[in-house]
Amino acid sequence: MSRAIRLAGALLLITIVANGLRAQTTNNSAREPSKATRPFVVLSGQSLDDLKQKLQPDNKVEELIDSNGMQLRVAVQHEKNKSGAPAELHDASDDVYYVLEGSATLTLGGKLDAPREAEFGEWRSARIIDGKSVDINKGDLIIVPRGTPHQRSTAGKDFTMILIKIYAEPLKPKPAKPAADTKERKP
Known about the structure:
- This protein is α+β, with helices and mostly antiparallel strands.
- The protein has a domain at 56-167: Sandwich (Jelly Rolls).
- It is 21% helix and 37% strand.
- The protein has two helices and twelve strands; from the N terminus they run ααββββββββββββ.
- 12% of the residues are buried.
- The model is unreliable at 7-13, 21-26 and 181-187 (pLDDT under 50).
């Protein structure tokens, strides 16, 4: 009797596995490639040159694309003679810098001194302890993995870079700006 029960159990298991494999095969054959969630972006060299001119001579950041719903941010950042910027550490994003013009001093690694959480997962500090300082120049590519303390100084320098920030999760849409008050005011 026990042999018959074991045989029946084995046949039942084989049937369940075979049906599961058949279902997987059916589901896999119905799969299709994903579709783009937004249009692609191509920026010509001229548009980047125009953007660099727009950023100078101020210390500015200009977003190149609308990143809502994406896991990345792309911006051009210009700094001139800027020192005292806080050290940063990101829990859930990686930074990639490509230096377009000029130079800066970048301190990487080590440990944030007395870190404070400015926003969830975004840490700031006045300085980095035991970090390594490197000079970065036009044409350099720098990858700063999440969890890496980093701090940039452009004291006495002029610097422009492309910043690519890669997030662990897609960005949520920013709240809409309130409409301007259009009521006529009487004198």
